[in-house]
Amino acid sequence: MDKQYILYPTDFSESSTHALQQALELAQKSHQKLRLLHVISRPYGDDITTEPHHEDNFGIVVANATEQQAHLAAYAKERINALLANLPPDQEIEIQIDQGNATSQILAEAAREDVAMVVIGCHHHAPFTHWLHPNVAAQVVNKAHCPVLVVR
């Protein structure tokens, strides 16, 4: 299978939006399609019952996770439509919205045979914060089996 796609994962941050321009340039120069990926994290407690006295949830009542996921998906679609409005009409783009861990989902998508490379934005973190909040871009660079371009 040919490497047809440049994978562009986005969290809609400023650095991620800046990476989109690089991904578009590469896609146009290499005559490849762009696969835009947004990953929605599953809400904490999504797998816990909403019954307050159920033994598995320690008495914690969880807000309606299904409603929360629907709201996040609608927000993602709204942001994607805003991004698409600024793109060249001739650029082929595939949109994908997944749920789960961002790093895991990006790596799974990057492992597909049709992905030529990943173009990802990188947040600037203060020293030592990477221990508390692992950098998704750094994890993708370290674990992906295809080229990764990190854009600051």
Automatic annotation (TrEMBL):
Signal peptide: none annotated. It comes from Shewanella amazonensis (strain ATCC BAA-1098 / SB2B). CDD domains: USP-like. Residues 6-152 form the UspA domain. PANTHER family: SENSOR PROTEIN KDPD-RELATED (PTHR46268:SF22), STRESS RESPONSE PROTEIN NHAX (PTHR46268). This is UspA. Pfam families: Usp (PF00582). InterPro entries: Rossmann-like_a/b/a_fold, Universal_stress_UspA, UspA. Belongs to the universal stress protein A family.
